[in-house]
Amino acid sequence: MELTDYWKILRAHWISLIVITLVGGLLGFGWAFLQPKVYTADASGLVSAGVSSDLGSAMAGENYAKSRVKSYLDLAKSRSVAEDVIQSLGLDADPDDLVGQIEVANPLDTATLRVSASAGSPEAARDLAEAWVGAVGEQVAEIENANADPALGQQSIVAFRSLDAAQMPEAPSSPNTKLAVAIGLIVGLALAVGYALLRNIFDRRIHSIAEVERETGQAVVGTIPLHSGFDQDTRMITSTGGNDQGQKSNEEYAVAEALRELRTNLQFMNIDNPPRSIVITSALPGEGKSTITANLANTIAAMGRRVVVIDGDLRRPMVAKTFGLLPGVGLTDVLIGNAQLSDVLQPWGNTGKLYVLGAGKIPPNPSELLGSNALHDVIEELSHHAIVLIDAPPLLPVTDAAILTARTDGALIVSRARRTTYDALKAALNNLERVKGHALGIILNGVPSKGAKADGYGYRYRAYYGRTEKQEQAPVVQQDDADEFAALIAGTSAPADTTAAPRPAAPAQPAAPAQPASPAPAATATRQAPAAPPTPTAARPAADAPPAAGPGQGSAPAADEGPRRRRRAQTR
Fold first, then answer.
1. What pLDDT is stored for residue 26 in this prediction?
2. How far is C-alpha 280 from the chain's CA centre?
3. N or C: more exposed end of the chain, with fewer CB within 10 A?
4. Distance between CA 115 and CA 106 in Å, rounded?
5. What are the structural domains, with CATH classification, of the chain?
């Protein structure tokens, strides 16, 4: 990983870093607070070797004193000195314990002994330091006098006298609260950084687009941000019109823009042959596939493209509830021949381009129905006239979505950011590969759009545009589109689809006088819708128009088409 990756990890866990660091500092402070206070007093004594007016003798005496003071270091830490101090101060203490309270040092190139005494109170520390220096002086005098021979009139030339008296300490020397808190903060910060790095290593949830593409080899074709404006019952975006000026809030704009970006990515996924039938599934339940399916279909319809949403989840159907439709006859009724496809398609919304095919009755054999030729024919027929989005069950619990993907142009796999694991996502992709299904890409749902966690998803810089973005204008609804589409599905007419792009409604022209029908050769017969209203503008071919009939492929009159289609359905 690069340095920026580590920085992103730390930013993503900034709360943990702060909390653990502060806990370390508090623990350091608590430790210092609970420790007994210790006060330290310093006193010093000087070793001298007589007095002489002769310069040479004086220098020799000073050097002799420096050499002797080194031998007094061990004497100053001896048990005998401690016993003298206990006797002089009247203490009730063990000599060895008292020695542990004393530190003796000889500053470099001096004849001085510095005594540091520690005690539980300032007075006790001062008295102990003073008494200790005095006891060392008495011990030195005894030793030096013992070395002199009184018979020869010799006297000791070495003397030890007090140099600096001990002062009463104003503050305890230990514990050092500031040092304890500083050490606690440093240790806490180190533990926090280690925690963040270890959690990143063992956390297998999705955290960024780059990680998803690196782990799975699949492209992320859409990222849907977190948004609280979804209706709790239908999961459709409730605020589609924005404020009084047609503007949307930042969150609403982010969702709308993400859906438009996903729609655009699908259009440019294959310029020559864009996908017409798409399964939208997920690895596990609760990823938001049904919500994305419904809102994506609404976004495609807002562009003027005809789109059909099929509820392919025959175990727990959700499409009818998402669109606010009453459950009834649907896909299963068409597959078993109890209903015609044109009879169960339900138009939805104000665009006139969105149709819903509910699941129908829940069957005992969902996998067999989803793998049947009848469903393949339904998908193929609908994809000739519209973009088909199929809301399928999750890939890991059941095989339904994989079966559906094998019969369509591919699948979009919805994964929830910071919840779906890479292991689950890879297992879902493997299920598609086993049935030769094609994964079109991955949609990340529930992506954070602000804060440090949004860095990996590209949403940090999008909020700027949210306050001025206006609602995407839906095409003018053509009143005859639902009838026209139903006629296409029923096989009673074959006009070209004019929904490739929005077009304004033109004033209706007066209908031409009816001309008597004249017989035409079967090879050039064209299919006419009965009692069709006058068309405002000439029909023009579009990307999702059905292929025109070639020579020798003319249609029979409308009156004969219905029975023939019913017979074809029964044959299937």
1. 97
2. 22
3. N
4. 9
5. 3-35+176-202 (no CATH), 39-164 (3.30.70.1130), 217-465 (3.40.50.300)
Across 308-317, average pLDDT:
94
For the segment 449-472, the average pLDDT, to the nearest whole number, is 51
Contact 282, 415 (CB under 8 A): yes
Distance in angstroms (rounded) separating the CA atoms of residues 85 and 88: 5
| Cβ atoms within 10 Å of 386's Cβ, excluding its own | 27
Q: Please give the mean pLDDT across all residues of the chain.
A: 77
d(CA 119, CA 173): 10
Confirm if 40 and 133 have CB atoms less than 8 A apart.
Answer: no
What number of H helices and E strands is found in the chain? 19, 12
> What span, in angstroms and rounded, lies between the C-alpha atoms of 507 and 536?
7
| CA-based R_g, the chain, Å | 46
Which of 407, 187, 393 is CA-nearest to residue 277?
407
Bridge-based pairing state of the strands 354-357 and 346-348: antiparallel
According to the model, what pLDDT value does residue 370 have?
Answer: 92
In whole angstroms, give the CA distance from residue 572 to residue 565: 11
Residue 230's nearest CA partner among 168, 299, 281, 294 is: 294
Residue 59 neighbours by CB under 8 Å, 6+ apart = none
CA nearest 276: which of 543, 541, 482, 503? 543
Q: On the CB side of 369, how many CA atoms lie within 13 Å of its CA? A: 21
- pLDDT given for residue 352 in this prediction: 87
pLDDT digits (tens, 9 = 90+) for 89-107: 998 889 999 999 999 998 8
Task: Write out the two tokens for 520.
Answer: 């035409």
Cβ atoms of 546 and 494 closer than 8 Å: yes
Between CA 368 and CA 109 the distance in angstroms is: 99
Give the tens place of pLDDT for each residue, 207-219: 888 889 999 999 9
pLDDT higher than threshold 80 for residue 298: yes
Q: How far apart are CA 393 and CA 447, in angstroms?
A: 22
pTM here is 0.63
Q: Return the structure tokens found at 339.
A: 């209903």
Which run of H or of E encompasses 169?
none
State the pairing for strand pair 220-225/439-447: parallel
